[in-house]
Amino acid sequence: MSYFDQYARFKDFDFDSFFCRVSPEDIQRVLAKERLNTVDFLTLLAPAAENLLEAIAQKARRLTLQHFGRAMLLYTPLYLSNHCANLCLYCGFSSSNRFKRQTLTLAEVESEARVVAATGLKTILILTGESRRHAPVDYIAECVRILTSYFSSIGIEIYPLEEEEYRELSEAGVDSLTIYQEVYDERIYGQVHLQGPKQDYRFRLDASERGCRAGLRSVNVGALLGLGDWRRETYFGGLHADYLQNRYPEVEISYSVPRLRPHCGDFAAFYPVTDINLVQILLALRLFMPRLGLTLSTREGAALRDHLIYLGVTKMSADSRTSVGGRIMAGGENQFAIADNRDVEQIREALLTRGYDPVFKDWHPF
What we know:
The chain is an alpha/beta fold. It is built from 15 helices and 11 strands. The protein has helices spanning 3-10, 15-21, 24-31, 38-44, 53-68, 106-117, 137-147, 163-172, 186-192, 201-205, 207-213, 230-247, 275-288, 302-308, 344-353, and strands spanning 71-81, 87-88, 123-128, 153-157, 176-178, 193-195, 218-222, 252-256, 293-296, 315-317, 357-359. The strands form 2 sheets. An 8-stranded parallel β-barrel has the order 1-3-4-5-7-8-9-10, surrounded by 5 helices. A two-stranded antiparallel ribbon has the order 2-6. α6 packs parallel to α7 and α12 (230-247) runs parallel beside α13. The chain is globular. 47% of the residues are buried. The model has no long low-confidence stretch (mean pLDDT 97).
């Protein structure tokens, strides 16, 4: 059994009819409950909840303070390679886009690591395009071994691996995995992934569970908001996170809410997601899963991120670059445009001003 079996049971559910039946009284009933089930979660995603977001936000804030306090973990991405074998309509690294492709040498990886480490950050997320030929697992493992001298926590956001490959990277020093399904709707998934190994929906969906079985301490999932209807996508993403948390209680499960950003292609969102929609997504996830980590990246602007600090977010990126070697090289192609360009110190000050504790390190490997 995998999460796919749960997804398959609900994928043909009549969401529109359900949402039409949800009333403000239903929202109030859910707010009065201590523990929410999957129907309650779906209820909080209904249009009727939009007029009660203030009350929902107050409960979400209480739950976040109860389980996480005022701590906000800071991390930053480091791109190793932008070679990609996939043709994905929404991604700047898609094989259909023409620009200079590159993969960092091990010396360049260390140079980039030194720049990041100088900011004080101890948590890093390494990324590649999805090309096994240009960024094979043994290359990534060598990069990780270098990075362990500079960072206490190293995450990966790369192509889906087999369980033994995740275990190999874990032994090299990786402790967390981020992998987005991109879009849970299988029909849309087929429309936006036109070529390459990423066309295998099921292999990607099960990757997070393979990471859990391989012994990684933290796994982060999510959907790329804008590809599918956000209410359905958040529901299936939340069910995915809940499945992993229940099946692998020893693993820290987190969820990201990335919205589509401009890139070198010309793809426009199928289902645009407003700021209010994003708030509703975060609040519904927090009430459904009080212990769920919620990650907010620099895809969002500074003003919005500062406001969302209070609404359940537990992890934020800082001083991001989305090009290969973006801190030591100029002119590289960005995977997507960043909206919050503040450096680590500016984000640290923003958190302190709002009464939150910026955390640079929350894990030490042995």
